[in-house]
Design goal:
441 residues, alpha/beta, 8-stranded parallel beta barrel, 21 strands, 30% helix, globular, binds pyridoxal-5'-phosphate
């Protein structure tokens, strides 16, 4: 088990998160429960920013990709740390604004931003719109012309670098719904089109080569392609883009199949990117570029633990034993969606020896609702408290009310304190927007 500094068993073998015992969290907030360790989130953000300061003379920044975990409290944390953010919908923009986050520090991504979303973003002074599609150039320019503003934009390019990861979460192949291909010339066409628009100011170029990437060579290669492209823009148009945004996708530790990562290892991705850009600047005669990165998973992933209570146990003798929990695919869709894997413990018996191999099954009416297919655990019984690790990214943010289960609350912990970041849904919340069509009444 890869215990983290602020998430360790105490001497009795009980998991303590941010100074709060798992059993105390259950007693106060119930299960299923998302627990977010604020110390971890802050430590990663600070370390990432320090890395840009130390390896790139502070000429750049870190944008938290908030699709990985979006709620008011996380934007409050990002504001307190002077972070940039990524947003991908008007809903995320609204959430950020509701927490007092200044979205002039936000990048707005998306392969099909709605006209209403672009208008909303521009009205609220969005920092950078990341253009993802050729039609978006005219749509956004027109919106900005009407409002008499000049909008900073980046373009999302596709450097054609394949990061080795699960194919469903690869986005940088030529066959992708995201961005402009550099290789086939689409990206240059888009650049020239943007430079011709009065109400758009070209700020930078983006790429995002995938998710859960461990191979830093993928980033080196992408930097090489991107810096060549920036030089080509300069040669063909005389325009010097200011910023290179290398996206996110830094891999995190889910199970023992993944490297055990320290904070330094995480920062290494950024260091490698910074070094590669500096190298390119020196060897290719490139102008100085501002460096942005957009990590999501690596900031919040390992900060999250989901607590569940064990209910029924289904022992199919000689075949499989299912430990059924009170959560499932409605709070964590990743195993069903990506065959994602997780580690877990019985939170009050962290030191107990594993005695059997079991599956941890969710409560939804789908055979695919399995959170962990195969895990060695001490013998679990009804009422035991299960902690599943590294659920902070794409857990709560992908939650649904499938089977009309309530989306579990999110509790943040820090220094022995614990409080709601997202309160529990009530039955009333679940039916809040239901209506009966007049012709059925
Ligand atoms: C999803 C996404 C990210 C964040 O990816 P992580 O794997 O969570 O780090 C960053 N940039 C863009 C454009 C994305 O789509």
């Amino acid at each position: 088990m890869n215990y983290r500094k602020s998430m360790m068993p105490n001497k009795d073998g009980e998991l303590v998160i941010g100074g709060v015992k798992a059993s105390d969290l259950r007693a106060k907030f119930g299960t299923p429960l998302y627990v977010m360790d604020v110390e971890f989130i802050k430590a990663v953000c600070r370390a990432f920013k320090d890395t840009i300061n130390n390896s790139y003379e502070g000429f750049g920044g870190v944008a938290f990709a908030s699709k990985s975990f979006s709620c008011k409290a996380i934007y409050t944390i990002m504001k307190s740390l002077d972070m940039n953010i990524d947003v991908v919908s008007a809903g995320e923009i609204y959430t950020a604004l509701s927490s007092g986050f200044d979205i002039s520090k936000a990048y707005f991504h998306g392969n099909n931003k709605l006209i209403s979303e672009l208008e909303y973003a521009v009205d609220n002074n969005i920092g950078v719109v990341v253009i993802d599609n050729i039609e978006e150039i005219d749509i956004l320019n027109e919106i900005c012309a009407k409002k008499r503003v000049v909008q900073k934009v980046n373009i999302r390019t596709n450097p054609g670098v394949e990061a080795h990861t699960h194919s469903y979460i690869q986005t940088a192949k030529i066959d992708s719904k995201f961005g402009f291909s550099i290789e086939n010339g689409d990206a240059m066409v888009a650049i020239k089109s943007i430079l011709n628009r009065k109400n758009l100011h070209l700020n930078g170029v983006n790429c995002h080569i995938g998710s859960q990437i461990f191979d830093s060579n993928a980033f080196r290669l992408a930097v090489d392609v991107m810096t060549d492209f920036i030089l080509e823009i300069d040669r063909e148009t005389g325009y010097k883009v200011e910023e290179l945004n290398m996206g996110g996708g830094f891999g995190v530790h889910y199970t023992e199949n993944d490297p055990k990562f320290t904070l330094d290892d995480y920062c290494n991705y950024i260091k490698i990117i910074a070094m590669a850009i500096k190298d390119a600047t020196a060897t290719k005669g490139l102008h100085r570029l501002k460096l942005m990165v957009e990590p999501g998973r690596s900031i919040v992933g390992e900060a999250g633990v989901t607590l569940y209570s064990v209910g029924n146990i289904r022992d199919i003798k000689g075949i499989k034993k299912y430990i059924c929990i009170d959560g499932g695919m409605f709070d964590n869709i990743r195993p069903a969606l990506y065959q994602a894997e997780y580690e877990a413990v019985i939170a009050t018996k962290c030191f107990a020896k594993a005695e059997e191999t079991v599956a941890i099954a969710g409560k939804c009416c789908e055979s695919g609702d399995i959170i962990i297919d195969k895990i060695d655990l001490p013998v679990a019984k009804r009422g035991d408290l299960i902690a599943v690790f590294t659920t902070g990214a794409y857990g709560y943010s992908m939650a649904s009310n499938y089977n009309r289960n309530a989306i579990p609350p999110v509790v943040m912990v820090e220094d022995g304190k614990a409080d709601y970041a997202v309160k529990p849904q009530t039955f009333e919340d679940i039916v809040r927007n239901d209506d009966i069509p007049y012709f059925l009444k």
